[in-house]
Amino acid sequence: MIELLVVIAIIAILAALLLPALAKAKEKAHRTACVNNFRQLGLAMIMYTHDNNDMLPWCQWYNDYGPSWAYAPYRGQAPDPFQLVGGVLVDNPDVNAISNVLAGVYYPYIGNRQVYYCPLDRKENKDFIYRIQRVSSYIMNGAVCRFGTYSRPRYKISQFNPAAYVQWEPKVNNEGGPNGPFAYNTGHDASQIPNATEGIGNRHVKGAGILGFDSRVHWISRLTFDQEAARFPGLLWCVPDSPTGQ
After folding, report:
1. How far apart are CA 17 and CA 6, in angstroms?
2. What's the per-residue H, E or C state across 162-181?
3. How far apart are CA 67 and CA 162, in angstroms?
4. What residues of the chain score a pLDDT lower than 50?
5. Which residues contact 87 (CB under 8 A, 6 or more apart)?
6. For residues 123 and 150, what is the distance between their CA atoms, to the nearest angstrom?
7. Where are the beta strands (DSSP E) in the chain?
8. pTM across the whole model
9. Residues 190-242: pLDDT tens digits?
């Protein structure tokens, strides 16, 4: 009996030592997958702008014009790849909604919808089930349309500071009760204001992926994001023809 207790104690100690390492390795794998997604989005951005006279795509500020980098609006809102049936998400059978999802101008260069999702942004998560915009885990910087000043694509990629940030993984906000609705932003779209309210996501706890206009991928902490969001102009507030970047 004593020997059995000793073995159980040793196993418990080993498990306590190994579990944090396993959790760390798992998060590193999730982070690597997210970084790879951004690399593909960055390549799509470079190829799209090359094919379109250097013009950046529409960032999807609200849902009254499209297509954007992510989708074409459907019935005045983001098209939904899924449908909630009995509390479970299933593939949306509406072929028109799906065609608007695939109408995002990056899709022909990527050809894989999984690239649009962080591996931790899962269909069984409450903030996914009850989220308004489920086309992507990522958003585009609203600086691309001067935060709503323009209603059509206007800027060329060469007008932006190459080191500035064009896309990142956003924070999910709860706009209602226990079941949301959840959203990235008040516009329920695929673009964002770079401030602490809309902010960067916390799925990876310590930080999130972020993509530069030069297509380089970075890993940025929430603290660093918030500090950069306080700079006018900066790498987030980066409108080309504005002295404050706004």
Report:
1. 17
2. CCCEEEECECCEEEEECCEE
3. 24
4. 15, 18, 21-23
5. 129
6. 34
7. 82-85, 88-91, 139-141, 165-168, 173-177, 180-183, 191-192, 207-212, 217-221
8. 0.90
9. 999 999 889 999 999 889 999 999 999 999 999 999 999 999 999 999 999 99
